[in-house]
Design brief:
Largest sheet: none
Strand content: under 5%
Oligomer: single chain
Number of strands: 0
Shape: globular
Radius of gyration: 23 Å
Helix content: 55-70%
CATH class of the largest domain: Mainly Alpha
CATH architecture of the largest domain: Orthogonal Bundle
Number of helices: 18
CATH topology of the largest domain: Ammonium transporter fold
Order of helices and strands: HHHHHHHHHHHHHHHHHH
Distance between the termini: 61 Å
Structural class: mainly alpha
């Protein structure tokens, strides 16, 4: 071979790349349009800052640095996984492509002079930013009790799982897309990520002291960070959904503006209702976590239908999002499934509700072919469109729930996922990164925070797989640890 590029192409020739004639039709961009989604990519990337601040503010101070590091891993390792495998599984058009996964375009690349270089790389960058968001959802679900090295493996594999769902919904081969399912701006991210997060947190069991005082949530480490994170997410999300038009020519700018207004109205409706509902639940006191959860749920919901619904319906469906998500927050706690950031109530429900709103309230966005001329059931359409949206929600939920289990099981076999109890009490910051971020770190004892009735036996089961037993120290004799679990 005369150079490395030729050697690389020869090595991977079994997986042909998208050529000019093979670019997924949904993303055929005019040259004048390409700058718009490229700029939106930068804003979507900045949303990681918002997610990181919200998660680090929700967890206790002794784990705040660790949650930030996990978000960095989401971007770096998740982005790498999407480049290597995810793009090809979602959008590849090789000979082994099926309705359930693509092939080809692994390690996507274009040659100099290819007239569609901009389009291919715009699609890659845009979808890469989607994939890393799905990982961030799982990061919050497993907060405060996972080895960082194990999480790095987990985030790589979860990216691949998400890519399958993205291919179902947006790839030219995708079976959901070919049935007529519609998701404008990424509710699939939250359905798959939320469902996978529930499986992961169930597998791990609750944090040691989560149910010591019943089902009351643990106090947030830094509510100010949570609020700042929301504001960063908020403006990024409006841009995120504006970008679903993939351009501004040919009337697309009308729908970009409509998407932005719909996103804003949904969040305003959710925030207003969330404040009132929280005050009602707590006799005049307003719970910060509940209000923010309601707003984020509405933002998740509007992803799927951001320019398809009339603006007043965006406001109403946003308020419904807040009501249901706030009501769902304590549900998993009844089963002692510890979901620190509410991925079930906020992300999974928001994504499912978003898909359903498409089937119920969509208008035909002439001249665009987004819905293939179909309208929502309550807007004069037929049952088929609504049923397909139900099928998409169910299938993506099952992908996340069932697909995450072998991933987390395999990861746990390679590197034990669960921290040992002593390390968990000390906090991930000092154990994993050598940083003392909480002056009270190390003052708790296992006897003070465990409760035989409520702490999941999965913690004890995981002890059999932990290689860190020698680190338990004198206060926690191995022979007596099980008595406290």
């Amino acid at each position: 071979m005369s150079n490395f590029t030729e050697l690389f192409d020869e090595t991977f020739k079994i997986f042909p790349r998208n050529d000019s004639y093979a670019l997924p039709g949904l993303y055929e961009l005019e040259v004048g349009d390409a700058a718009f989604p490229l700029c939106i990519c930068l804003m979507i990337f900045q949303m990681q800052t918002g997610f990181a601040l919200i998660e680090s503010g929700i967890v206790r101070p002794k784990n705040s640095v660790n949650i930030m590091m996990k978000n960095i891993a989401d971007v770096c390792i998740g982005g790498l996984a999407f480049y290597i495998f995810g793009f090809g599984l979602a959008f590849g058009r090789g000979p082994f492509t099926t309705p359930f996964f693509g092939s080809g375009d692994f390690f996507p690349n274009t040659k100099f002079g290819d007239p569609l270089t901009c389009q291919v790389f715009t699609l890659l960058l845009y979808q890469m930013s989607y994939a890393t968001t799905s990982n961030t959802i799982v990061s919050g679900a497993v907060a405060e009790r996972v080895h960082f090295s194990a999480y790095c493996i987990l985030t790589f594999l979860i990216t691949i799982l998400y890519s399958l769902g993205a291919g179902w919904m947006w790839g030219e081969h995708g079976w959901l897309r070919n049935l007529g399912a519609v998701d404008l701006s990424g509710a699939v991210i939250h359905i798959v990520g939320g469902a996978a997060g529930v499986t992961c947190t169930w597998f791990l069991g609750p944090r040691i002291d989560r149910y010591k005082k019943g089902r009351e949530p643990l106090p947030m480490g830094n509510p100010v960070f949570v609020c700042i994170g929301l504001f960063i997410l908020w403006w990024g999300w409006i841009a995120f959904n504006c970008g679903c038009s993939y351009g501004i020519t040919g009337g697309k700018w009308h729908y970009a503006a409509r998407a932005g207004v719909g996103t804003a109205l949904a969040s305003w409706g959710a925030g207003t209702f969330g404040i009132a509902y929280s005050a009602f639940l707590h006799k005049g006191k307003i719970d910060v976590f509940e209000v923010i959860s309601g707003i984020i749920c509405a933002l998740v919901m509007i992803n799927a239908s951001c320019y398809l619904m009339p603006s007043y319906l965006a406001l109403i469906t946003g308020a419904i999002s807040a009501f249901v998500s706030i009501s769902l927050l304590p549900v998993l706690d009844k089963f002692h499934i510890d979901d620190p950031i509410g991925v079930f109530a906020v992300h999974w429900f928001g994504g499912v509700w978003g898909h359903l709103t498409v089937g119920l309230f969509s208008e035909n966005p002439v001249p665009l072919t987004t819905t293939a001329g179909k309208e929502g059931l309550l807007m004069g359409g037929d049952y088929y469109f609504f049923l397909i949206q139900c099928v998409s929600s169910l299938s993506l939920t099952l992908l996340g729930l069932l697909g995450a289990y072998p991933i987390i099981w395999l990861t746990n076999k390679i590197v034990p996922l669960r921290l040992d109890p002593q390390s968990e009490l000390l906090g991930c910051d000092i154990v994993e990164h050598g940083i003392v971020s909480d002056p009270n770190t190390g003052t708790e004892k296992i006897e003070d925070v465990t409760n035989n009735e409520f702490v999941s036996t999965r913690i004890a089961d995981n002890l059999d797989n932990m290689k860190q037993r020698k680190r338990f120290g004198t206060e926690m004799n191995l022979n007596t640890v099980s008595e406290h679990l």
